[in-house]
Amino acid sequence: MDNNLAFPLRLNTISRLVREHSAPLVLLSCGVGRQWTWIGRKMIEPAINRAAAISVRDLDSMSVLREMFPSVSGKLFVAPDPGLWAAETYNIRPESKTGMRIGLGITAPSVLRRRSIDAAEQYSLAYWAALADRLNTIGYDVTLFCNGAPKDYEASRAVHMRSPSTTLAKRPTSGKNLAQLINTFDLIVSHRLHANIVATSLDVKALGLGWDDKVRSYFNLINQPDAMFTAAPTISQMTRTIEELLGRSTVDRIHLENLKSQTLDFLLNSLSLHSPTKLQR
After folding, report:
1. Fewer Cβ close by (within 10 Å): the C or N end of the chain?
2. Quick one: residue 162, left, alpha or beta (phi over 0 = left, psi -120 to 50 = alpha)?
3. Is the pLDDT of residue 129 over 80?
4. What is the spatial distance between Cα 237 and Cα 231, in angstroms, rounded to a whole number?
5. How many domains does the chain have?
């Protein structure tokens, strides 16, 4: 998806600067959706053609990009999102777990509506408040949080007004703030892809809410396809799934390290193509 030309404009600008300065270009861990305008596709074409190598974050993105630009196949690789390195990047040690701390990641209905009218209606403020109240009644320590987007924070404040027994987290103002916050939870529930990715890095259990293909693709990538909902569950279904996930292990750490190695290897190999000395781990 070209996201109202936000990404195409940036890629087009980068491509122009690279051309002006005769600099090499490598695209790392891109997500590629299926909803593109013709002008968005046209705007990214110079960057796609100029890039010496391109990595995408999952197999679905690879398939879509090949359909859009068949000539890209020879320089296209899969390298998962570098957010999987959040723990190392921010030097955060996973906290000991109590099994009782749950973070509900609130996404504003107006944001969801851009992709899915159904999701915006199903995951209403009233829905989140009802879920928070149910979890509090059971005995869980529930915190409302967001990735940092102002609209999401305002939505989380609105949910808190409906469910004052919950804790309202401060709005994260940096990636490190977000990672530190997620590290305090045993499990998060979120539509936001990068909240789920950071949780994986920190060994925090994640329950993904699918509002577009990228969330589903990510949970398939980490071998946790049953740790997400493609449609809004009832409060009872959500509660039951949360309890099931809390009772089992997180993502297999060997598999996670293999995914992280794919990203690091692609990055080092790409940089080595344009470095006088070979870069190593």
Report:
1. C
2. alpha
3. yes
4. 11
5. 2
SS3 content of the chain, % helix, strand, coil (to 5): 55, 10, 35
What pLDDT shows up at residue 278? 55
Asked whether residue 271 is assigned to any structural domain, the reply reads no
Q: Which residues have C-beta within 8 Å of that of residue 159, sequence separation ≥ 6?
A: 104, 106, 125, 128, 129, 132, 144, 166
The pTM (predicted TM-score) of the whole model is 0.90
Same domain assignment for residues 229 and 127? yes
Which of left, alpha, beta for 260 (phi over 0: left; psi -120 to 50: alpha)?
Answer: alpha
Q: How far is Cα 110 from Cα 104, in angstroms, rounded to an integer? A: 18
* Residue 219 scores a pLDDT above 90: yes
**Continuous segment of H or E residues that includes residue 103:** strand 101-105
Domain assignment present for 257: no
Read off the CATH number of the domain in which 236 is found: 3.40.50.2000
